[in-house]
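Long-time lurker. I teach an intro course on protein structure, and each term I like to show students one example going from raw sequence to a predicted 3D structure in token notation. This year I'd like something fresh instead of my usual example. Would anyone be willing to generate the tokens for the chain below so I can use it in lecture? Attribution to the forum is fine with me.
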Amino acid sequence: MYLTRNIAPKLPTFKLKLPYAGEKKGSYQVKQPLPGFPKMPLSLQLREYQRQAVTSWFANHGRGTLKMATGSGKTITALAIACELYQQIDLQVLLVVCPYRHLVTQWGRECEKFNLQPILAFDNLRSWQSQLSTAIYNLCSGSQNFVTVITTNSTLISDGFQTQLKYFPPKTLIIGDEAHNLGSPKLEESLPRNVGLRLALSATPERYFDDDGTQSLLDYFGPVLQPEFNLQDAISQGALVHYIYNPVLVELTEFESIAYLKLTKKSAVLYYIKIEIWGTRETLKTTKILNHY
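-- Reply from a regular --
Happy to contribute to a lecture. Here you go:
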């Protein structure tokens, strides 16, 4: 069941210009950012489909879903959007939400190439909460101008992170990596409504056998934008190496099908139980830590 939150205050609107207008190649930088601000690497040249994706997102007023094949450069495209937003509206916060920890560290490495100094907010609450709260406080007080935060889906729904989200400024861009994972009710409800600049990344944004979840995801982030870029496109345009893909279909016996269905249902129940109690567990852990001191 997908719950509807109370109507959020009207989000601020930004006059976004279409990037690369009149540009034949490359990107341009007007400002000279200090460390921690978005800056395109000098050696980076966006591919044409990446430039088209950036333009489509800006043309859709700062919302949309990029459906691009794995390995075709979704991360770089998203960071190029962040750089352009910094140039146009002085973007203040970049928030990236990933389903897995190893993707957080991968994003961290890519962000550093774009002159960013990300806060990796996952795992132990004590390892990131103080750093994040200090950065947001400095941002609100004017002593810091940009914050990059990369977190996991499970940390996003925790009380520790949710209490910080309400202080994020209007000039925040949220990027949902492998965004199809964010279509479950609990995760979708945890996405910040006070953030208007939204970008979803996924090779497969359509959730399997979950039309409601898919629609909920698109309602939040925005529609799938052109150009869609599948494996065949990526190979034909040289973004991925050519290879032969030979799927081997294996049919289950009747007994195997019944056993598979039972295990799937059991796994689903256990997954949602874990999601529901995560926030409670984190709260209890924090309480024990505070009481200890």
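Some talking points for your students: Residues 9 and 194 are 8 Å apart (CA to CA). Residues 1-7, 24-33, 278-293 have pLDDT under 50 and may be disordered.
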